[in-house]
Amino acid sequence: MDAGTVAAADIRSVMAMIPHRYPMLLVDRVEDIVLDRSAKGIKAVTINEPFFQGHFPARPIMPGVLIVEALAQTAGVLAIKSLGLEGSNKLVYFMAIDEAKFRSPVEPGVLMELHVEFVQKRATVCKFAGRALVNGKVAAQANFTAMIADPPS
Asked: Would you write out the chain's pLDDT as a tens digit for each of its 153 residues?
């Protein structure tokens, strides 16, 4: 591994870093983690996802907002690792989503790659750029800002 690159986060590690659980856990693995820089999440999109029952039954398509959420969850893992916050129970909240673009539908049966990188990193607010790829083609992209905070008491 290169300097700054850390071991991949399997599903157990992801669940230890972010609070999301089924059906809202939308990243299965995070790999290629380069601290303070970037990471790649993996989401196996299956027909068993609950949202496919209604979006759309005749042609199941993953909702764009959930693709952006999957990017944000990947960025949350990157932020927690980069800021040394593992085990702190800190939460990563959306503050803004900008320039979201949806290029092609994401259908069941694909592996979606979730590429995120820091645009700006501070102790409590981070900005990211994200791209979701299917078969090497951009399906969606967005810039987003997140706040790192303590969980509610």
From this structure: 666 889 899 999 999 999 999 999 999 999 999 999 999 999 999 999 999 999 998 999 999 999 999 999 999 999 999 999 999 999 999 999 999 999 999 999 999 999 999 999 998 999 999 999 999 999 999 999 999 999 898
Residues carrying an active site annotation = 55
**CA dist 82 to 32, 86, 87, Å?**
13, 9, 13
Phi, psi of 74 (to 5 degrees): -65, -45
Best CA proximity match to 35, nearest among 13, 9, 11: 9
Whose CA is closest to 85, among 116, 121, 120? 121
